[in-house]
Amino acid sequence: MGKPVDFAEKYYRDGADELFYQDVVASLYGRNSIKDLIKETSQNVFIPITVGGGVRSIHDMHELLRYGADKVSINTVAINNSNIIKEAVRVFGSQCIVVAIEIMRSGISSWEPLTMSGRQHSRLDALDWAKQVVDLGAGELFITSIENEGTKKGFNFDFVDQLVDKVNVPVVLHGGAGNPNEVVEAAKRGLSGVAIASILHYGLFTIEKIKKELKSAGIKIRL
User: Fold this and answer.
1) For the chain, what is the domain count?
2) Mean local confidence (pLDDT), 21-30
3) What share of the chain has pLDDT > 90, as a percent?
4) What is the CATH number of the domain that holds 90?
5) Is residue 222 domain-resident?
6) Is 172 within a domain?
7) Are 148 and 105 contacting, i.e. CB atoms less than 8 angstroms apart?
8) What is the pLDDT of residues 175-194, one digit of tens each?
9) I need a surface site. Which of 62, 99, 142, 150 has the fewest CB within 10 A?
10) Residue 151 has pLDDT above 90, yes or no
11) Which domain holds residue 53?
């Protein structure tokens, strides 16, 4: 759709509270080539930037933070070796470490976390995994509903309704935002934030419109 930096600078001017950069095929192709993009973005964008995709080591995390990221998001490497969460927290602090959990329904009230940007099964229970990563020190959870992502049909509240009261870290929900009312609903359900892509990228709604709806609903928000 264009240069990510242009979108980042626009959303910063429009009042976004945070940006999330995700190289969605980095793990699949064994690459981590987003550093220059982060460096360019951080020169003109002065809100927190979280970066994920292809992070395989403490060294990778250090490089992303050195180039301008404020937080690092990990998924595949964490499932393959959960000890890296504890090590990363020891080195960088829990506030820097976000664990992304990409969920797919596996039963009536159960979900499985996927790896490789939703391409591979882990055979784990997503709720148990979320609790485990928080116990290991992760400072934030970034939940993506693979089935809802890109559909603009609404968020998956079924999973996070079970999660938010069981962990003591911020939970950000991603996947399916279709209109501002769904963002309001997420705030009312106790989520710390939502990540929005399609409806902003395609110009269906603006950050200003979404924040006005939140304010009208009595949600405390930075305008």
Assistant:
1) 1
2) 66
3) 77
4) 3.20.20.70
5) no
6) yes
7) no
8) 989 999 999 999 999 999 99
9) 150
10) no
11) 4-216
Portion of the chain with pLDDT greater than 70, in percent: 95
Q: Answer yes or no: pTM beyond 0.85.
A: yes
Long-range contacts of 115-119 (CB under 8 A, 24+ apart): 115/27, 115/75, 115/76, 115/79, 115/80, 116/27, 116/28, 116/76, 117/24, 117/25, 117/27, 117/28, 117/53, 118/144, 118/146, 118/149, 119/28
Residue 148 in any domain: the answer is yes
If pLDDT is split at 50, 70 and 90, which confidence band does 14 have?
very high
Of 168, 195, 181, 208, the C-alpha closest to 48 is 195
Q: DSSP secondary structure string, the chain?
A: ---HHHHHHHHHHHT-S-EEEE-TTHHHHT----HHHHHHHHTT--S-EEEESS--SHHHHHHHHHTT-SEEEESHHHHH-THHHHHHHHHH-GGGEEEEEEEEEEETTEEEEEETTTTEE--S-HHHHHHHHHHTT-SEEEEEETTTTTT-S---HHHHHHHGGG-SS-EEEES---SHHHHHHHHHTT-SEEE--HHHHTTSS-HHHHHHHHHHTT-----
Considering only residues 223 and 53, tell me which one the structure prediction assigns the higher pLDDT.
53
